[in-house]
């Protein structure tokens, strides 16, 4: 039923957009909406404040006439997503509230993330650490007496170890040098090549492979606000099914404010945060900034918008605009 309702709404919205005029008067403070010109101005400010964002023209046949050809939508690419949103929620739920002693005031409580078992594990690992590689050296350093018989055994063992170590030293005969017509060919032991391959494989295993997203922001003529789109890739850089992007959206918003729609400028379907509430939320955020002594201009609109969207996709770390100066104090 939800999908049917969404489809009917999309048909109605598309028809309405062909009839409705493009907004030409500014009302971003009064209503939280933008004109196309204000969207471009806010996009220019975002690109200047955060160069990871850039303008795109999209497919020629899908360009909107009320936007410049080279500034149809904004995009930032290859944004990592280290974990799923449910994993982040699980981590928060595992925070345990511990009382320093029974009956103390709640203000004296402290929070330990991950529980006490993790701390115990760290303590066990620290207890196993020793600065002395040789147990005999540790005993000597502590002042303990070593019986003569054990000392002799230790000396014999050390001699055997030294002899064993000498066996590990590569023999020059392992390297065969052939001289022919002033050409020298050196054949290294095959074990060296195997060691190199193992080392390379180990380095590759250290690379953290994650989901990544290309994020785009378009202008929605019907709602007169920006719209946020997610195009995902799995750990092997294969295109992610749009439905799987819901795993990286907070549970509060997944399947409620996030829909799967055709991207307005690209030939694919994509997960999108539906813009039906954007104007209302932006109006409240702008009012809150004004009450705090800041007067954001329309150029700051997208910076504020992206900070608001970050709460919906908490594991996608795209927000690099913290340094942008919003308004005056």
Describe this structure in a few short sentences.
With 329 residues, the chain is α+β, with helices and mostly antiparallel strands. 37% of the residues lie in helices and 17% in strands. The strands form three sheets. It has a six-stranded antiparallel beta sheet with strand order 1-2-7-8-10-9, covered by helices on one side. It has a two-stranded antiparallel sheet with strand order 3-4.
Given the structure, what is the number of helices?
9
Backbone CA Rg: 32 Å
As residue ranges, the low-confidence spans are: 96-100, 109-146, 172-177, 179-184
User: What best-fitting shape do the alpha-carbon axes yield?
Assistant: globular
Provide a descriptive summary of the structure in words.
The strands form three sheets. Strands 1-2-7-8-10-9 form a six-stranded antiparallel beta sheet, covered by helices on one side. Strands 3-4 form a two-stranded antiparallel ribbon. A two-stranded antiparallel sheet has the order 5-6. The longest helix has 21 residues, at 148-168. A hairpin with a 6-residue loop joins β9 (258-262) and β10 (269-273). α8 packs across α9. It has helices at residues 2-19, 36-49, 85-93, 116-128, 135-141, 148-168, 190-205, 278-291, 301-310; strands spanning 54-56, 73-81, 96-98, 110-112, 176-180, 183-187, 211-220, 225-233, 258-262, 269-273. It is an alpha+beta fold. Residues 96-100, 109-146, 172-177 and 179-184 have low confidence and may be disordered. The chain contains nine helices and ten strands.
């Amino acid at each position: 039923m939800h999908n049917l309702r969404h489809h009917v709404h999309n048909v109605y919205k598309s028809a309405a957009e062909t009839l409705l005029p493009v907004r030409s008067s500014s009302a971003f403070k009064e209503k939280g909406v933008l004109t196309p010109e204000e969207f471009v101005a806010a996009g220019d400010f975002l690109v200047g404040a955060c160069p990871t964002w850039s303008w795109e023209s999209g497919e020629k046949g899908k360009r909107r006439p009320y936007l410049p050809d080279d500034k149809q939508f904004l995009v930032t690419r290859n944004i990592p997503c280290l974990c799923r949103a449910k994993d982040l929620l699980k981590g928060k739920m595992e925070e345990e509230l511990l009382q320093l002693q029974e009956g103390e005031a709640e203000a004296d409580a402290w929070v330990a993330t991950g529980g006490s078992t993790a701390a115990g594990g760290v303590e066990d690992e620290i207890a196993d650490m020793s600065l002395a590689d040789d147990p005999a050296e540790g005993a000597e350093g502590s002042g303990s007496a070593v019986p003569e018989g054990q000392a002799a055994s230790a000396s014999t063992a050390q001699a055997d170890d030294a002899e064993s170590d000498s066996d590990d030293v590569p023999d020059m005969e392992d390297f065969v040098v052939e001289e022919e017509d002033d050409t020298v060919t050196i054949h290294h032991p095959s074990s060296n090549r195997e060691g190199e391959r193992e080392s390379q494989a180990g380095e590759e295993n250290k690379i953290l492979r994650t989901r990544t997203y290309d994020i785009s922001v378009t202008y929605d003529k019907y709602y007169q606000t920006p719209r946020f789109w997610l195009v995902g890739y799995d750990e092997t850089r294969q295109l992610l099914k749009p439905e799987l992007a819901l795993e990286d959206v907070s549970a509060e918003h997944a399947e409620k404010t996030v829909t799967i729609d055709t991207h307005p400028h690209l030939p694919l379907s994509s997960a999108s945060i539906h813009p039906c509430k954007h104007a209302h939320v932006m109006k409240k955020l702008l009012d809150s900034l004004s009450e705090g002594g800041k007067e954001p201009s329309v150029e700051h609109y997208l910076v504020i918008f992206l900070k608001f969207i970050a709460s919906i996709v908490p594991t996608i770390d795209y927000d690099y605009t913290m340094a942008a100066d919003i308004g005056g104090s």
